[in-house]
């Protein structure tokens, strides 16, 4: 019960890695806020969390959040504060993916990726950090990066750029906010078997002229651990970075990728 009575907001928390972290946080005693843009997915996630943990009832909250809209971000912070009294932990997990050859990248694709993955992440961090500072009890902020932020990919230039920015923001914000007792760190997943990767596989099939499923199989086989990651593989790192055990960890991005990247 490392997170007993802590209030944790998880953006993009209704599925994939976000939902896996929500389930683990709940098991560790936290009060969990599933913040997502998909209202139906929120309802399903909240139901799943109620089934996953005893006495989850009052410890789970679902809230619609559009991270591209600062009004929506502020409304989320206000509603969580009114319900639980404050926010102790933020997992900045909401993100979108797109890919295309460099010469085919559109302004619309660029705007979509940077609006959600960078602007949305930063201004959610800013709003929650402000609330943490006003409350005066510090906090933990975890930004979900990616191995794509550690290296370039010819078909995913803009996505890689957004995740490299997440790593950089984690460093800058980590240094800026630790004086307020707020630890900002990140997690860098590798290839993870989520619904998003099925979309990624379909795009690779299109641009690399592959049958559906082949790219997903190949990248899984290439992981030194021997398989793609699973959402739950990231929950332990998320607990560590949200707990007192990480109090002296500042501005770091932890690779959780089965050995794909070493830094």
From TrEMBL:
Transmembrane segments: none annotated. Its EC number is 1.1.1.14. It comes from the Bacteria. Pfam families: adh_short_C2. Signal peptide: none annotated. This is L-iditol 2-dehydrogenase. GO terms for molecular function: L-iditol 2-dehydrogenase (NAD+) activity. Residues 6-190 form the Ketoreductase domain. Belongs to the short-chain dehydrogenases/reductases (SDR) family. It comes from Halomonas nitroreducens. Keywords: Oxidoreductase. InterPro entries: KR_dom, NAD(P)-bd_dom_sf, SDR_fam.
